[in-house]
Design a protein that fits this description.
The complex is a heterodimer of chains A (about 120) and B (about 110). With about 120 residues, chain A is mainly β. Chain A is about 0% helix and about 45% strand. The chains are: A mainly beta (about 120), B mainly beta (about 110). At the A-B interface, strand 4, strand 5, strand 9 and strand 10 of A face strand 5, strand 6, strand 10 and strand 11 of B.
Chain lengths: ~120, ~110
């Protein structure tokens, strides 16, 4: 079946610009997660949604970062006034549930590589 | 705070040799543990997971891992590696809440 998809696969932007990154989760998955992976590091948690609401946004680095999931499926990560330090691979994952059990296993998309010049 | 330490940043190994990638975590309570693999320019693929039950977990591509609660370790092993196993491997832990905490990764380089 279809996995998690992310668009675009690559995004190059200039410092100060606004960007949107999109994630399509696996059909039927209620939970959706965003992570950021900087060069040479493991992914770091940003935010996760249970349905339409953000259940935990403790990983968002500052108020330039915002994410939405208005219909409980597709999510968009929005970054305002981009900075060179925002350059990274942004990974999206989804899980069937977020109840603390075995069906919470997260499946990842291929990522969006963001480069801020 | 939950943390994960992958003790080796790179592991070179010859084809058909065994390999062990080490992972230690910090936690005083029950955890869920995962190994993911990342091939070049791709996302993360789940290799295996420990949720409960048997401490020896078998995953895809011939990999297995052993959960050791007393040593807070979850090392990944494969008895005979292939060139195609060359990738970066990430250990991760999930406790309360649903966010995964990842280690820094171990690059496995399989040489012919």
């Amino acid at each position: 079946g279809a996995g998690v998809s992310q668009t675009p696969s690559n995004k190059v932007t200039e410092k100060g610009k606004y960007v949107e990154l999109r994630c399509d989760p696996i059909s039927g998955h209620t939970a959706l997660y965003w992570y950021r992976q900087s060069l040479g590091q493991g992914p770091e948690f940003l935010i996760y949604f249970q349905g339409t609401g953000a259940a935990d946004d403790s990983g968002l680095p500052n108020d330039r970062f915002f994410a939405v999931r208005p219909e409980g499926s597709v999510s968009t990560l929005k970054i305002q006034r981009t900075e060179r330090g925002d350059s990274a691979v942004y990974l999206c994952a989804s899980s069937l549930t977020a109840s603390g059990g075995s069906t919470d296993t997260q499946y990842f998309g291929p990522g969006t590589r963001l480069t801020v010049l | 705070a939950q943390s994960v330490t992958q003790l080796d940043s790179q592991v070179p190994v010859f084809e058909e040799a065994p390999v062990e990638l080490r992972c230690n975590y910090s936690s005083s309570v029950s955890v869920y543990l995962f190994w993911y693999v990342q091939y070049p320019n791709q996302g993360l693929q789940l290799l295996l997971k420990y949720l409960s039950g048997s401490t020896l977990v078998k995953g895809i591509n011939g990999f297995e891992a052993e959960f050791n609660k007393s040593q807070t370790s979850f090392h990944l092993r494969k008895p005979s590696v292939h060139i195609s196993d060359t990738a970066e491997y990430f250990c991760a832990v999930r406790r309360y809440g649903n966010k995964l905490v990842f280690g820094a990764g171990t690059i496995l380089r399989v040489k012919s």
